[in-house]
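Mods, move this if it's the wrong board.
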Amino acid sequence: MKDTAQLSEGWSLDHDGTRLAAQVPGCVHTDLLAAGRIPDPFIGRNEREIAWVGRRAWTYTRDLGAAQTATGAHERTDLVFDGLDTVARIVLDGAELGRTRNMHRSYRFDVTGRAGELSVTFDSAYDEADAVRATVGERPNAYPEPFQYLRKMACSFGWDWGPTVVTAGMWRPVRLEHWSTARITRVRPLVTVDGTRGRVELRVDLERTAAGAARRLTAQATVAGASARAETDGDALTLVLDVPDVRLWWPRGYGEQPLYDIELTLFADDRPLDGWHRRTGFRTIEIDRAADEHGTGFTFVVNGTRIFVRGVNWIPDDVLPSRLTPERYRTRLQQTADAHADLVRVWGGGIYEDAAFYDACDELGLMVWQDFLFACAAYPEEQPLRGEVEAEARENVARLMPHPSLVVWNGNNENLWGFRDWEWEGALAGNSWGEGYYLGLLPRVVAETDPTRPYLAGSPWSGSWDHHPNDPDHGTHHSWEVWNRQDYTAYRANVPRFVSEFGWQAPPALATLRRALPGEPLAPDSPGMLHHQKAEGGNDKLNRGVARHFPLPEGDFDRWHYLTQLVQARAVATGIEHWRANWPRCAGTIVWQINDCWPVSSWAAIDGDGRPKPLYHELRRLYADRLLTLQPGADGPELVLANQGATPWSCDVTLRLMRADGTLAARVSLGLTAPPREVLRLPVPPEVVPATGSAKEYLVADAGDLRALHFETRDHAFDYPEPRFEIAVETVGRDRDTVDVVVTAQTLVRDLLLQADRIAPHARAERGLTTLLPGESTRIRLHGTDGAGANAIRAAFFCVEPA
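Not the wrong board. Structure tokens:
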């Protein structure tokens, strides 16, 4: 069998004549950080201090001894790089092995019997971009950095949520492979299912040594007790395995996620040469894009079941992606699943994630929407980029296609929309801009390589140039006018067929800010806060969002921090409640965004230090199978029960018309049933509807532990009482670090929030925003309190106050 030796140690990085110890996988920034040569770019404004790192060349070296490259019992030794970031020259013993210019591909070089010093020199990504731009000409871009001129993680050049940290290095593993006769170069498993009968068609590509050129080879494959065998004298073969009685893989919330091991072994004369192993699952996937009375639909259909997608957008979880580990992927994706999401969109300005990411999604039942890596720019279609794009696409489609969680390939992020609306067409003057990739090359690659999955030309995309690319009535829609210019109530203005991006900003947790901005007095417009706010006019938009509902606090950072996080949660809730209430016309939402890559004010639900914002807890409510909401209707508020569960939702709903002073004005009880996977919507009985424009009445709907509220006015106009509540702290078992905080309201207490990290940086609460009526109590479990007392805990509470 093939032998493999990892080359993770023994590397050094040349820094101004000094050789620093280097770690592979890694990058220049991680090595310089470890050596104490640069400050942490995430702290303060250090990002500016380390900008020089991305503008110069770097060389890594190590000895590659004769014993390492000697084949021994094998005929061939290959040096394999799983990822080189990005423009590299590889030299062994003074002789060039090759050059690379794509972060998103792997590379292989024959080093049989060769030895000496191995060096990998990375040119500045800026220099490469300048050279390519000089060749192909200028292209417009939504950001000032030149990321569209090379195949590198675009957001390493900065984004409206990310720092400019332009990396270089061997960001994925490096190894030596020793092999003989032949090896497996690529396996494409086409996995299909008809009823309960599965089928796995393995299309296998091979490479042979000179000595093995004429040998007859045999491949043996097994999956779930089924087996197949095939022989070849050439460089390819196909094995077909029919698997009876398979169990279907389902998205979370719809069923289980059974996974099956595929084992493939290559033989010559019954001697094993190479092997390939992956897990897969059996399911069908299609996107229903049929025209109807509302326009052109966009509905995911998995195993014949139509699904309202509860999705989140995913960016690289670290701007230094070599630091991402399987454990970190698992933690973040488990948080995502715990928020009741069922789809993760891997956004096109990042990377094709590590196998550990997709493995976790397979196991957790998180569908993956995978963008090809193009975002927010016009991309040249000439060489040297075109060949790189095709090679990158073919490799990654084949690499990821075993994963049942992967449900759709998407050509780009916002580039079709950008061409139409961002004044690109005139600036391009007829030059290529990527359309040939999205409507030609990439769908052809998917059709040839992975015909089992649907392809989407872009997000947003209406399906053809017959409609505006971001037309809400056709295909996928990005809703950014609301955050940029309007109040969040404007989400209710239309019903897109599928909302693949929308969101609202908020700052990270207070403990995250304190770590990122040490010694700086916190204020919305402090130098550090503004540096960690990358969106154009971001703070102005945050303030405008608050001021439309609350008096904008002057000189009170803690209050400003609470209100901006509250408005973020309310904004996203307004959109999701409205769109879920309009299923099946609207068939899904993908919130921008679940995670961050550093500590920053952004749209994320989980901040750059991994701390959930109030939005995260709100997503758990909004994406639960059962959602209770009150929606504005033409003739007054309407009660909505959105049931995505597999069984009917029968419940007693209590509707109360409450006065601001805490007294009950009217009460109605209704026995209702929402059918499985359906929405029940009906007018609120008139006796519990607040008077139009009333500042002294509000409507409360309760169904079990679910609650919905309706106010006729915005917060600054409502006659809130001064909030009064008591807390009691109860220990849980013998663990002094875990307590239950029991809150009892004496008045209306709206959007009560316990900011646990104010008690201790590692503390966390299991609840987010909570509204209590007079006399009601709630219990909040709090972990990591370090023995804090009731006074410290009470100081960490915030709620809505009178204007």
